[in-house]
């Protein structure tokens, strides 16, 4: 038997950065993301005559990854009794560079395992397991705009903003030096700005949901930038300081701010890596891309709104 699932990446507009409950992955605030259609993970699970083995992007995963994935799979009923499986996983985008590969990775693995072990959970039920692999992964189970309610589960937000695009400007796709899991724990424990982060992010999630439902793109963009800036400021205030931003990242932010002065609706966000994501609308893509090229940012990917994670093959 072989089951293959595909899951998209998602980029948070209102960020998740820090857990109140580490074990059960309960974040301090709700986060809201946009599922994208540019990069995804495809993962297959097949029966094998050998004990559990994982191959990631064509290479046998490290011992550490094996331990992590095995303990994750223990949350699926039937895994312990049927653990002779081969998992093959491929990311179409860069891995561990702040481009949500762990989000699409754990979402694809969850959807594949759910079907392979016949657990029959809905996406909302599956989120409670998926988030244990990577918090943001639970949001990749659904398409479009997705809210991760910190005390319950995921939910798709209906929005008239269907022409939204995201341009991912690739600054550096090397593996990040500090994993987001470690960095967010340090931030919670040491950043004096953390209480402000919690308060502002909780307020921002409510406002973002309203703006998405109303179709107020200006507000969506403004809240997106504020959330990213406050997250990076909060982690920068940690001891020792944590920073994923590079000079070239700021150059992109500055360019986007200049474009805004010329009435181009474009806003930036960044995650645990130096790559900058620009959120805009379809009609302005051409102008922004022209400007990126003029300023020498030639490495970028344009994305539309992505669909939910799903099983794509089964035999
Ligand atoms: O889900 P994790 O543990 O990879 O953390 C994700 C953290 C950010 O990407 C920076 C923010 C987010 O909400 O996706």
Describe this protein with a few key phrases.
eight-stranded mixed sheet; 315 residues; binds (3R)-3-hydroxy-3-methyl-5-(phosphonooxy)pentanoic acid; alpha+beta; 14 strands; single chain
How would you explain this protein's 3D organization?
With 315 residues, this protein is of the alpha+beta class. Helices cover 37% and strands 26% of the residues. Strands 1, 4, 5, 6, 7, 8, 9 and 14 form an 8-stranded mixed beta sheet that branches. The longest helix has 21 residues. The model has no long low-confidence stretch (mean pLDDT 96). Bound molecules: (3R)-3-hydroxy-3-methyl-5-(phosphonooxy)pentanoic acid (PMV).
SSE class:
alpha+beta
Work out the helix count.
8
CA radius of gyration: 19 Å
Helix content: 25-40%
Largest sheet: 8 strands, mixed
First CA to last CA: what distance? 6 Å
> What is the arithmetic mean of pLDDT?
96
Strand-residue proportion: 25-35%
Identify every distinct bound molecule in the structure, by name, code or SMILES: (3R)-3-hydroxy-3-methyl-5-(phosphonooxy)pentanoic acid
Shape: globular
Report the strand count.
14
Helix and strand sequence: EEEEEEHEHHEEEHHHHEEHEE
Low-confidence segments, given as residue ranges, are none
Explain the layout of strands and helices.
Blueprint: E1 2-14, E2 19-21, E3 26-27, E4 31-47, E5 53-56, E6 59-60, H1 63-73, E7 85-91, H2 101-116, H3 123-133, E8 145-148, E9 154-157, E10 164-169, H4 180-190, H5 194-214, H6 217-236, H7 247-261, E11 267-270, E12 276-281, H8 285-294, E13 300-303, E14 310-314
Parallel strand pairs: 5-7
Antiparallel strand pairs: 1-4, 1-14, 2-3, 4-7, 4-8, 5-6, 8-9, 10-12, 10-13, 11-12
Helix pairs in contact: 2-3, 5-6
């Amino acid at each position: 038997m072989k089951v293959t699932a595909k899951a998209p990446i998602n980029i948070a507009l209102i960020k998740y950065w820090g857990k109140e409950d580490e074990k059960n992955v309960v974040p301090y605030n709700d986060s809201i993301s946009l599922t994208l259609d540019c990069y995804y993970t495809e993962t297959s699970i097949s029966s094998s005559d050998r004990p559990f083995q994982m191959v990631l992007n064509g290479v046998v995963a490290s011992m550490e990854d094996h331990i992590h994935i095995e303990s994750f799979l223990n949350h699926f009923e039937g895994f312990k009794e049927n653990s002779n499986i081969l998992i093959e996983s491929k990311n179409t985008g860069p891995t561990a560079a702040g481009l949500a590969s762990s989000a699409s990775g754990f979402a694809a693995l969850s959807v594949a395992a759910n079907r392979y072990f016949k657990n029959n959970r809905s996406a909302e039920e599956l989120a409670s397991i998926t988030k244990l692999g990577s918090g943001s992964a639970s949001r990749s189970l659904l398409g479009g705009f997705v809210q991760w309610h910190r005390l319950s589960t995921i939910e798709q937000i209906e929005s008239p903003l269907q022409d939204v695009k995201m341009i991912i400007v690739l600054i550096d796709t090397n593996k990040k030096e500090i994993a987001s899991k470690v960095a967010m724990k340090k931030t919670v424990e040491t950043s004096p700005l953390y209480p402000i982060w919690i308060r502002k992010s909780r307020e921002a999630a409510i406002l973002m949901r309203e703006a998405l439902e109303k179709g107020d793109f200006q507000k969506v963009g403004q809240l997106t930038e504020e959330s990213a800036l406050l997250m990076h400021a909060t982690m920068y205030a940690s001891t020792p300081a944590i920073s994923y931003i590079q000079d070239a990242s700021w150059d992109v932010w500055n360019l986007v701010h200049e474009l805004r002065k010329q009435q181009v609706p474009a806003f930036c966000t960044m995650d645990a890596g130096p790559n900058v994501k620009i959120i805009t609308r379809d009609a302005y893509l051409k102008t922004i891309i022209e400007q990126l090229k003029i300023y020498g940012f030639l490495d970028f990917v344009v994305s539309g709104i992505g669909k939910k994670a799903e099983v794509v093959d089964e035999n």
